[in-house]
């Protein structure tokens, strides 16, 4: 579930002494992927379920992250030929507004090329599906603690 909380902060839960820098990086990647899943679930019921997701930009250079996202979303990821996805999309919208194309789907058909597809790994899909309820429980469980910590950091402290 997505949370409209501009004061929310991130954290690591369940750290042990055997966790290294790589485990922390993976945890961040997984957290972002679960947030993307939250966003995808906001679209439930608005149209037919997506058959794939498209990905562009610098993160697309990380095979690990692409595998994680594909598994968490449980969708094939279509990797686009451009790295500047947001700017490219804005340019296409400008083309639609200028009359180069009649509609956004026409612009996408003319301009977007998929260079490869990452299929979700079945064993990862199952594991992330098991983890999703725990991820979903974190924000409500930590909300009051995070805000109390923020208040104590920003509140005035008198010197003795």
Topology as H/E string? HEHEHHEH
CATH superfamily label of one domain: ATPase, nucleotide binding domain
According to CATH, what is the class of one domain? Alpha Beta
Mean pLDDT: 87
Share in β-strands: 5-15%
Approximate helicity band: 40-55%
Major beta-sheet overview:
3 strands, mixed
Task: Give a structural overview.
The chain has five helices and three strands, in the order H-E-H-E-H-H-E-H. The protein has a domain of 89 residues: Nucleotidyltransferase, domain 5 (2-Layer Sandwich), CATH 3.30.420.40. The protein starts with 20 loop residues before the first helix and ends in a 6-residue tail after the last helix. The protein is mainly alpha-helical. Strand 1, helix 2 and strand 2 form a beta-alpha-beta unit. The model has no long low-confidence stretch (mean pLDDT 87). It is globular and about 55 Å long.
Key features of this structure:
3 strands, Nucleotidyltransferase, domain 5, single chain, 160 residues, 5 helices, three-stranded mixed β-sheet, mainly alpha, 8% strand
In short:
The protein has 160 residues and is mostly helical.
Helix and strand topology:
Layout: H1 21-42, E1 53-55, H2 63-73, E2 77-80, H3 85-97, H4 104-111, E3 114-118, H5 122-154
Helix pairs in contact: 1-2, 2-5, 3-4
């Amino acid at each position: 579930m997505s949370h409209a909380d501009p004061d929310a902060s991130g954290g690591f839960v369940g750290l042990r002494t055997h966790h290294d820098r790589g485990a922390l990086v993976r945890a961040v990647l997984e957290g972002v992927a679960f947030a993307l899943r939250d966003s995808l679930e906001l679209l439930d019921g608005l149209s037919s379920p997506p058959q794939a997701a498209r990905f562009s930009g610098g993160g697309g250079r990380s095979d690990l992250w692409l595998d994680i996202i594909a598994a968490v979303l449980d969708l094939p990821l279509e990797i686009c030929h451009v790295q500047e996805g947001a700017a490219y999309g804005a340019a296409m919208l400008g083309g639609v507004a200028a009359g180069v194309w009649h509609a956004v789907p026409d612009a996408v058909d003319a301009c977007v090329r998929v260079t490869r597809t990452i299929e979700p790994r079945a064993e990862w899909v199952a594991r992330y599906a098991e983890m999703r309820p725990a991820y979903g429980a974190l924000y409500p469980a930590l909300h009051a603690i995070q805000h109390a910590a923020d208040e104590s950091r920003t509140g005035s402290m008198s010197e003795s």
